Amino acid sequence: MDSGNKCILVIDDEKPFCEVVAEILINFGFCVEKAFNATQALALLETIDPALIILDIMMPDIDGLTLVRKLRLETRFANLPIIVSSAKFLEEDRSAAINAGASMYLTKPFSAQELRASIMDVLPDGMGPT
User: Which residues contact 107 (CB under 8 A, 6 or more apart)?
Assistant: First the structure.
């Protein structure tokens, strides 16, 4: 699968939340892949080339910020748009995410419109939904 498919990888250990976000993205016209923890996401990233990653901070195996830092060390993911989503809403949480390498921070809960606007802000021109 290549980024021409405008695939978004959603990583969140809360499966119902992950499913809802995936459904919203599919309705927007995106291809969606899901992972329910960082380890599963890293394995999936061996086989896909997403246009964007949306991930949670608080996950059981490897937290989202550690995953962002790890991805930023790899040339392939150095400039990949990454939206961190979390129920944490303090400015220090947002700053920590941006300092780790996140492209944007989205506080949960968010609306479909907020999600779409965030995606359009971070995706390069021409990478919108099909």
Answer: 85, 86, 87, 88, 89, 94
Torsions phi, psi for 106 (to 5 deg): -125, 120
Answer yes or no: are the C-beta atoms of 49 and 1 closer than 8 Å. Answer: yes
33: its two tokens: 């892949």
Return d(Cα 2, Cα 63) in angstroms, integer.
Answer: 26
Continuous H helices in 73-126: 91-100, 112-122
**What are the chain's domains?**
3-122 (3.40.50.2300)
Task: Supply φ then ψ for residue 31, to 5 degrees.
Answer: -80, 140
Q: What burial letters (b/e) apply to 90-116, b meaning 16+ CB within 10 Å?
A: eeebbebbeebbbbbbbeeebeeeebb
- Tokens 């195996």 correspond to 61
Q: What is the pTM for the complete model shown?
A: 0.91
CA distance 99 to 53: 17
Per-residue pLDDT tens digits for 2-46: 334 579 999 999 999 999 999 999 999 999 999 999 999 999 999
